[in-house]
User: Fold these one by one.
Assistant:
Number 1:
Amino acid sequence: MYSDKVMEHFMCPQNAYIMPDADAAGSAGDPACGDALTVFIKVRDNIIQEISYLVFGCCASIATSSMTSVLAKGKSLEEALNITEEDIIKALDGLPENKVHCSNLGVTALRKAINNYYKNQAAK
């Protein structure tokens, strides 16, 4: 049902921790299935230097959250804003059709974190 890459990120999720000193955070959830994700970012010179997350959800939600963090780390904010659900699914070697919606969580929470970072910077 799941690719080896999905199982790897489910069994050994990368960057899964709370970041109390984050520059910004963004959250997303899917009320239909109960999944929830919060992404934390630290930004230096417009680059995501550190990224972490807390996720509550199924195997696919955990794997897509992990892969989102891997894809965004080290990218400029603009590059990270351009990460799509398709990028995450492709990096995981696919998802079952009924789990494709899980990739929306990562993209949505990441974009909210970046937008919150921009708002925080504008308020300074």
Number 2:
Amino acid sequence: MPTEAIDPPGVTWLRVSPKYITVRIAGWALGNLLVIAVLSLPLALVLGGWWRGFPLWLAAAVPAGVGLLALWRLLLIPRQVRAIGYAEREDDLLIRRGIFFQRVLVVPYGRMQYVDIGAGPVERGLGLCTLKLHTASAGTSADIPGLPAAEGARLREQLSARGEARLAGL
């Protein structure tokens, strides 16, 4: 259910690429496989007979519980990606994200110090990038992940030009 605080009136949100779901799933898989492998070591030791005093139910329950939690997070990834959006307005850039805990960040063009684009190996393979906005305050830096590379380059140039124009006007 949209609220006025989260969705200002008259704002048309641009969404990130659906390919970003693949990037998030790749990160999810790598991280969760490592965690579950480490948490499964006691189970392997108990089943192998090297750790006889440890309860089998506990050795199996911990990796199983973490696996179920990981599957829940996997199911949320597509919805989380669809919740990411941005909107260019005359004086500022809005960045929206979140399902349960929604957040809208407003970055005035005149406060931007520099705009950075980065891409990891999976992002590069899919033709995506992450745009990072840096402001004078360390706590207000923002990023827009999952942008198509051409849109990221366009947005970088547009935001840099608007930032310089607003800064010159001060």
